[in-house]
Design goal:
Keywords: Ethylene biosynthesis, Lyase, Pyridoxal phosphate, S-adenosyl-L-methionine
Distance between the termini: 36 Å
GO molecular function: 1-aminocyclopropane-1-carboxylate synthase activity; pyridoxal phosphate binding; transaminase activity
CATH topology of the largest domain: Aspartate Aminotransferase, domain 2
Pfam family, one: Aminotran_1_2
Oligomer: single chain
Radius of gyration: 23 Å
CATH superfamily of the largest domain: Type I PLP-dependent aspartate aminotransferase-like (Major domain)
EC number: 4.4.1.14
Bound molecules: pyridoxal-5'-phosphate
Largest sheet: 6 strands, mixed
CATH class of the largest domain: Alpha Beta
Catalytic activity: S-adenosyl-L-methionine = 1-aminocyclopropane-1-carboxylate + S-methyl-5'-thioadenosine + H(+)
Shape: globular
CATH architecture of the largest domain: 3-Layer(aba) Sandwich
Number of helices: 15
Strand content: 5-15%
Helix content: 25-40%
Strand order of the largest sheet: 2-7-6-5-4-3
Length: 467
């Protein structure tokens, strides 16, 4: 067998391409929605991309032709860009990224450009971290999506202890805790108190804390995003055990550029990661473009503000559009997605993952929307789905909303007029197949941009699990 000649990783199925998450992608790839050429195709809502501000980036590129080597103004830099690249990264790139990371964190912390290590996206950054911190068979604790309403979805000390003790009993060596803040898939942020308690836990157990803050600038409403770097500075909890993973894939919407960052407070980790980063460097061409763009303070300021505004608007339109057929989402203020609650559509008295996946198949094949079932995020309570909302136009979002609403009407037999009011205006559910409101109309109904609308879905109370 040829397979036996390969490594264990190559022979295994660790990538998870067989999971529901990737099945949905395949369904989209086989029949992609296009408003004109394939209006009945599958709409991609499984991709956490931020495409709402590309007009601003395009405008900047046109105004700054020297930032690219593919222009009359920039071609003089071609040779210097094309030759050997060293793994430290261009000083102007590391400087610009450090300043950008500070800006995203409200300039409440300082980042040392000498600690910025490049990687191929946050994916590469995680690999670098695992390489530097763990050996084969060691483990990291990873909290699964959420925590219950009674404690405001916080990661609790008791759940962390439980997961840690489980690992101890199974004789698994825990090297660290990995958290994502803001959360994917929840779109929520961890508060200072929780971060401090998490740090106390990792400090006490003498394990690493890796914080993935890739969605830092997507927080569009209160409460503010608090970075672990703010806690490290102020509380001084064994900083050598604390590491940040970042990238420009979400905050700027550039996953194709593969700009990932490891920022560690541990000198040895910085040194090792820098050497190992040769496996996933950011191209010099990209470094130059990003250095130039992020050094433009006026642009960065405007982009971050506008991006938050557009994300808030999109989030509000979408959650409101769902709420009129009784679909609620977890209350969130960040990320590029919503965490949609369809537990009521799983009829079984004892909802199972199988029931969730059966519903998900109907959503993919009949509603023709690729969303991601909670089970693909190891969610312990069936019936939750992650729906990405920032990778499409307003019109496509509307088509998706109409499909979801029609599906709910068919599934629940909802025929009674359903009336919602907002201020002086009214929106009336008139006919189960005719409800279609333009985004503009929805905005009119919802009034000025404020996140906590009286009609915002109430937070639900998912179960807890930390593994
Ligand atoms: C929390 C989180 N970390 C890392 C990644 C990977 O990002 P990148 O494209 O920078 O590799 C993603 C992408 O969805 C993500 O959601």
């Amino acid at each position: 067998m040829v397979g036996a000649l390969l490594s264990k990783i190559a022979q295994g199925n660790g990538h998870g391409e067989e999971s529901a998450y990737f099945d949905g992608w395949k369904a989209y790839e086989n029949d992609p929605f296009n408003p004109t050429s394939n209006p009945h195709g599958v709409i991609q809502m499984g991709l956490a991309e931020n495409q709402l501000c590309f007009d601003l980036v395009r405008e900047w590129i046109l105004k700054n032709p020297a930032a690219s080597i593919c222009t009359v103004e920039g071609v003089k830099d071609f040779q210097d860009t094309a030759i050997f690249q060293d793994y430290h990264g261009l000083p102007e790139f590391r400087n610009a990224v450090a300043r950008f990371m500070e800006k995203v964190r409200g300039n409440r912390v300082k980042f040392d450009p000498n600690r910025i290590v490049m990687s191929g996206g946050a994916t590469g950054a995680h690999e670098l971290m695992a390489f530097c911190l763990a050996d084969p068979d060691d483990a990291f604790l990873v909290p699964t999506p959420y925590y219950p309403g009674s404690n405001d979805f916080k990661i609790t000390r008791s759940a962390l202890e439980e997961a840690y003790n489980h690992a101890q009993e199974a004789k698994i060596k825990v090297k660290g805790l990995l958290i994502t803040n803001p959360s994917n898939p929840l779109g929520t942020v961890l508060d200072k108190e929780t971060l401090t308690s998490i740090l106390a836990f990792t400090h006490e157990k003498n394990i690493h804390l890796v914080c993935d803050e890739i969605y830092g600038a997507t927080v569009f409403g209160p409460p503010d995003f608090t970075s672990i770097s703010e806690i490290v500075t102020h509380e001084n909890h064994k900083p050598e055990l604390i590491h940040l993973v970042y990238s420009l894939s979400k905050d700027l919407g550039f996953p194709g550029f593969r700009v990932g960052i490891v920022y560690s407070y541990n000198d040895d980790v910085v040194n090792c990661a820098r050497k190992m980063s040769s496996f996933g460097l950011v191209s010099t061409q990209t470094q130059k473009l990003i250095a130039s763009m992020l050094s433009d303070k006026v642009f960065v300021e405007m982009f971050l503000e506008e991006s938050r505004k557009r994300l808030a608007r999109r989030h509000k339109l979408f959650t409101w559009g769902l709420s009129i057929v009784g679909i609620h989402c977890l209350r969130s203020n960040g990320g590029l997605f919503v965490w949609m609650d369809l537990r009521h559509l799983i009829k079984d008295l004892n909802p199972t993952v199988e029931a969730e996946l059966a519903l998900w198949k109907v959503i993919i094949n009949e509603v023709k929307i690729n969303v991601s079932p909670g089970s693909s995020f190891h969610c312990s309570e069936p019936g939750w789905f992650r729906v990405c909302i920032a990778n499409m136009s307003d019109d496509t979002m509307e088509v998706a909303l109409t499909r979801i609403r029609n599906f709910v009407v068919q599934k629940t037999g909802m025929v009674k007029p359903h009336v919602l009011t907002s201020g002086k205006r009214k929106c009336t559910w008139q006919n189960k197949l005719q409800l279609r409101l333009s985004s503009k109309r929805l905005e009119d109904i919802m009034g000025v941009s404020q996140i906590g609308s009286p009609h915002s879905p109430l937070p639900q109370s998912p179960l807890v699990r930390a593994t």
